[in-house]
């Protein structure tokens, strides 16, 4: 038996505002979401655009939807759990529908030292599983891993060289 929140589309017999409000509250009770994500969710459920816009505006007024706060939390979480650099975080924020100006503001707060520390931690973790590899292969894999996480090639190579030690750096 499906519940109203599981029904894929808006039921014309139900008040559209109540239906949309329930969807929004259900989504926000799970985790913070960007306005764009909520708009997309309402659109998938066939909530009329005018109702969705009005409710989302009201949710923003009362602070339930706040793209800047969402972006800060997202950046903090993704940096801590995945070790992503600003470049990768910026791409994720774009996909989440965060305005460029808001993303720039939030990403400017990321400390470059923290970013380098995160890169070091990623390299150290990966090194544990790379025993016995050729030095060149290890460097290539580690730099590639950091590049996929959004780190610049200069920073990635510098961190890898430092973490592998001076004896490996001399061979390069």
Describe this structure in words.
About 70% of the residues lie in helices and about 0% in strands. It has about 170 residues and is an all-alpha fold. The protein has 3 domains: about 5-60, no CATH class; about 65-110; about 110-170, no CATH class. Its main location: cytoplasm. This is Regulatory protein RecX.
What share of the residues does DSSP label as strand, in percent? Answer: under 5%
Give the radius of gyration. Answer: 22 Å
**Quaternary organisation of the protein chains:** single chain
Number of strands: 0
Secondary-structure-based class equals: mainly alpha
> pLDDT under 50 segments (min length 5)?
1-7
Helix content bin: over 70%
List the helices and strands in order: HHHHHHHHHH
Distance between the termini: 64 Å
Counted up, domains total 3
Globally, the shape reads elongated
Average pLDDT works out at 88
| Separate helix tally | 10
**Sheet having the most strands:** none
């Amino acid at each position: 038996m499906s519940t109203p929140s599981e029904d894929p589309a808006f039921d014309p017999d139900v008040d559209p505002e109540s239906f949309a409000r329930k969807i929004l509250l259900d989504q926000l009770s799970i985790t913070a979401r960007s306005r764009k994500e909520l708009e997309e969710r309402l659109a998938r459920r066939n909530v009329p655009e005018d109702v969705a816009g009005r409710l989302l505006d009201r949710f923003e007024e009362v602070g339930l939807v706040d793209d800047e706060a969402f972006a800060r939390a997202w950046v903090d979480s993704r940096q801590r759990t995945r070790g992503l650099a600003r470049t990768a975080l910026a791409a994720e924020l774009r996909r989440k529908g965060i305005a460029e100006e808001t993303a720039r503001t939030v990403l400017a707060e990321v400390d470059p030292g923290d970013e380098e520390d995160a890169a070091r931690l990623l390299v150290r973790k990966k090194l544990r599983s790379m025993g016995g590899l050729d030095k060149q292969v290890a460097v290539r894999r580690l730099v590639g891993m950091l590049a996929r996480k959004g780190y610049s090639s200069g920073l990635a190579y510098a961190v890898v060289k430092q973490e592998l030690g001076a004896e490996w750096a001399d061979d390069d």
